[in-house]
Amino acid sequence: MGYGKGEVIRVGIIGCGGIANGKHIPGILGVEGVEIVALCDIIPERAEQTKESFGLTGAKVYQDYKDLLKDETIDDVQVCTPNRSHSFITIDALEAGKNVMVEKPMAINAAEAKAMIDASKRTGKALTVAYQNRQSPEMQILKAEAEAGTFGRIYYAKAQALRRRGVPTWGVFMNEYEQGGGPLIDICTHSLDGTLWILNNYKPKRCFGTTFHMLGKMPAEYQGNGWGEWDPEKFTVEDSAFGMCIMEDGTLITLETSWALNTLDTVDEGRTFLCGTLAGADCTDDGVRINGVRDGQMYVDIINDKTERGAPYYDGRGWEGFGIREQQVWYDYLRGEGELVVKPEQAYVVSQILEGIYESARTGKEIVFD
Ligand SMILES: NC(=O)c1ccc[n+]([C@@H]2O[C@H](COP(=O)([O-])OP(=O)(O)OC[C@H]3O[C@@H](n4cnc5c(N)ncnc54)[C@H](O)[C@@H]3O)[C@@H](O)[C@H]2O)c1
Q: Which domains does the chain have, with CATH numbers?
């Protein structure tokens, strides 16, 4: 932190797969005053390929992230590896004096997430988690409306991320050991993060849930997956999960998520659903809908991407728009010109609740948080 005006921030990328190439690198390239100077992947050809496709001619390529961390000119590291390695790579990077943006989920469990926060405090280096959906138009509108008091007291919300057939078959997504779980930790993590952020409620009291290993075990003729056929033998994580979390103040958040489910009721992970004393809201393809009663009459306000109302808007609905904003706000923060948007303590609570749901599914018991 403490960069002077015009001073270039030098960045290293660890893990050069889908998310690094699809979001982080285009995002960083969209921000002024930041330079990608190092790329690392345990499969070095991937880092070389990334270097070539983005024309990062000056970037050094590493196979072992520990070698990248030895470069004292690198200020900031972005961890884009599978979930299991988020915690130890992040902690090593913080200890090496780097600020860190780590991909979601923060870690595969709450204890590891806590160790990451401790390392950030110990080293005085900044840490954030890449929940880019906070920059989506829907989440920005809902956050602004919640802060303006539009919803009154929100006492019921749904964190949904429901895919009919959207199993990520590349990399290690279906591998329990590497990822710590399936859709709950992979996509519902976004929905829960956005929901807690809008509610500004980070005090879970108890949770309960179940996970299913049903469609993941089905043979090819029942798959029909958008991302290609999966091998049922290698599908060791859940294919859907459902649960609920009751917060200290009594607010109920239900969680519903799937990579594969026989439903037409699909919900993108960048959306949420809330009910408050004054109004409720949900996100649809037509825009964000706010419903309530005004002057004794029920109303529905639809705010879509074309309106001037509500939160600030950014061009593009895909990675490009959110990904650039995610990087912009991070580097603004590192330059002392803005707030840290995704605080590690917030991402920790997401990990805590997700772990609670998994634990409940394993034990059949309600999990009570201290
Ligand atoms: N924010 C989002 O919406 C979003 C979307 C997709 C993935 N992700 C997250 O990004 C992470 C990576 O996902 P992906 O889709 O890019 O996977 P991927 O398999 O495409 O890429 C991961 C890369 O990391 C490399 N790698 C593995 N271990 C490494 C290590 N120890 N050191 C250096 N490189 C290593 C792999 O060789 C691979 O190239 C996951 O944690 C996932 O949850 C986030």
A: 9-130 (3.40.50.720), 134-313+349-368 (3.30.360.10)
